[in-house]
Every structure is written in structure tokens, then in C-alpha cells.
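Bench notes, afternoon.
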Amino acid sequence: MNAPASAVAEPTDTGHGASEAGPGGGTGLRHPWRRRAVIGVVLLGVLGVLYVALTFVQVWQASRQDHAEQAEAIVVLGAAQYDGRPSPALEQRLDHALELYEAGLAPVIVVTGGRLEGDRFTEATTGYNYLRDRGVPDEAIRKEVQGASTYESLAATARFLRDEGISDVLLVSSPAHTLRLEGIAEAVGLQATVSPTDGTASLPSLLRETAAVSLGRVIGYRRLERFDT
């Protein structure tokens, strides 16, 4: 007698199953833009970090370089003053400008900087008096007294020096400011090199200037007055 054949159930293809869920469980296929957006954000973050890191290196390198050379005028960036007496930072800048002037690198010194509310003296007037007391003749000194920021001071200086036919200048400030000064000078139409004061820039000042230069290169230095010192 023959045994009855066993019934074998055929699998039913319902059109669902593994073919719908890809390697990412289906989400990646239905919303591929999410993955692209995440990748884009990560790439932007990496590029941003690299950009800031490169800028820091440039700020640090510039702070260690002195490009003192012949110019038509020496421009001293302002710093704090105390009732007509220069702060240590301003005094250091004025002394360095005086050294450059006495070395014959330029026939004119421009002192810059306005005053805070309540002050009797501007930074420029303080610098003017300091240089006069050390033998610089009146006709060799120019004053820019309106600037409330580095950008404003250099823009105003560029305007009145242009009236005198002067555009080639030697800028004097603290070491960490060097790279930003070069950028601002170019923006206001000055042909400038920078001779910073002696000393090594501190890490906080380098970080501050890195932020200023990083933003200034993107949105313009005119908008960065809050970084000025």
C-alpha cells in the first residue's frame, strides 16, 4: 500500500518583508535627506574648526614678526590713558614709535584714539603730549581724536593722510593685534606694514584676536568694534 504524500505548504509572497527594509531598517530609504543633512552639518563643523585653527596659527605667527621698514608715516594705535597719563600698553607703543621715528623710518607720527565718557583727555592727545615731552616737534605729529575703535581710527587716519598725499604707513600696536591691523588697513585703503611692540602675546589675547580675525574675514572688520582694545 502506498503512503499518502505529505502536504507541503508553499510560502505566500505578500509583497512585504526584507525587500522593504534596507540596511538601515527602512528609515534611510524613506528619508535619505536626513543622512545628507547630518553629514553636511558634520562637514561644516570640521571645516569651521580647521578654519579657526588655521587662523590661530596665522595670528600667532604674525605676532612674532616685525616688518619695520621705511614709510611715510608711523601710526600709533591708541590704548587706555589715565587723566592724561598713558597706560603701560600705550606708553610701550609710544616708546616704540619714538624709536622708529628716531631711526629715520618716517618723518611723521600719527597718534590715534578718542576718549571714554567722563575722560578729560583723548588717547591721541595723551600720546601727543608724551611725544612732545620727549622732543618730537609739533609739526611731526598728527592727531586722530574721534575713533572709538581700531577700524574707526584707521579709517579716519586714512582720510586725512590721503589729503596729505600719504598712504604708506607703519603701524604700531601690541603683538597680538598684528594680523587684524593688516586686514583693517587693507580695508580702509592704507598700504601698511606692522611693527609691534616688544614682548610675547598672551594666550588670551591670541584667542581673542583669532575670534576677531575669523569673523572679520567673513563679515568685514567694520562690524567687529566689540573686539577692539
